[in-house]
Specification:
about 210 residues, alpha+beta, TIM Barrel, four-stranded antiparallel sheet, 4 strands, globular
Length: about 210
C-alpha cells in the first residue's frame, strides 16, 4: 500500500531493505488495495513483522540475491500509516481502521469477543489515540531493534498516547511501563465458538 517495486532499485544495496513477501508491486496497485479495503474485499491489514538488520543480516545476500533474508520491519508504524493515509485522507473511517486492525483479526483468530472489542467481559485492550499528534517516522526514534525504517522520513499525524492490556497501562506517552512476564498465552476458540474470559475471572477496571 506504500512501497512499490522502484524501492528495490535503491543504490548501494538499499533495495535489500524492501526484499519481503509478498514482493513490492507496481505503484498502480496501491489504489486497488485501498478500494478493496474500503469495499470489504479485503478484511484485515496485518504483517508477519519479519525484520532483518542492514548492518549484518541483509548483506548476506549482497553477492547472491536469493540469499537476502526475506522480510522487513512494518508492525510499529502500521497504525500511523493507516491513520494518516487512510483516515485523514478520507479513504477509511476510524471505525473501519479499527475493524481492519482489531475486530476482524480477533474474529478470524478465534479470540472474539475477549479480544477485538470493548465490552463487559472482554480483556479491556485499549489504545488511546491522539489524532492530532505529529510524528516523523525514523529508525532513530522507533522502538524496533531493526536499524532501518521502511518509511524513513515520512511525516504523519496521529499516534498512540496510551496503551492498555487487560485494563492495565503498558505504554504511557511512548514509554513501555509493563512488567516483564505480563503477557498471557491464549488458546483460540474452536471454529464457530467465541472466546470468553474464564468464569469467575475479574472484569478489568479501566
Amino acid at each position: 500500500m506504500f512501497i512499490d517495486e522502484h524501492h528495490l532499485e535503491g543504490p548501494d544495496f538499499e533495495g535489500a531493505k524492501y526484499v519481503f513477501s509478498p514482493p513490492a508491486r507496481p505503484a498502480y496497485n496501491h489504489d486497488h488495495l485501498w478500494r478493496a479495503l474500503r469495499t470489504g474485499v479485503l478484511s484485515v491489514v496485518s504483517t508477519d513483522h519479519c525484520p532483518f538488520r542492514m548492518s549484518d543480516q541483509k548483506p548476506l545476500g549482497r553477492d547472491d540475491l536469493s540469499k537476502i533474508p526475506n522480510g522487513g520491519p512494518g508492525i510499529e508504524n502500521r497504525l500511523h500509516m493507516l491513520h494518516h493515509f487512510g483516515v485523514r485522507q478520507g479513504r477509511l473511517t476510524m471505525n473501519e481502521m479499527v475493524g481492519l486492525c482489531c475486530t476482524q483479526p480477533a474474529r478470524l483468530f478465534g479470540m472474539f469477543p475477549r479480544k477485538g472489542t470493548i465490552a463487559v467481559g472482554g480483556d479491556a485492550d485499549i489504545v488511546v489515540w491522539d489524532s492530532d499528534k505529529p510524528l516523523t517516522l525514523s529508525a532513530r526514534t522507533h522502538h524496533s531493534n531493526a536499524d532501518y525504517n521502511m518509511f524513513e522520513g515520512t511525516e504523519v499525524i496521529g499516534a498512540p498516547e496510551t496503551v492498555l492490556v487487560r485494563g492495565q497501562v503498558i505504554v504511557d506517552h511512548d514509554e513501555l511501563v509493563a512488567s516483564p512476564g505480563a503477557g498471557q498465552f491464549l488458546h483460540r476458540a474452536r471454529f464457530g465458538e467465541e472466546l470468553r474470559a474464564p468464569k469467575g475471572a475479574a472484569v478489568p477496571s479501566t
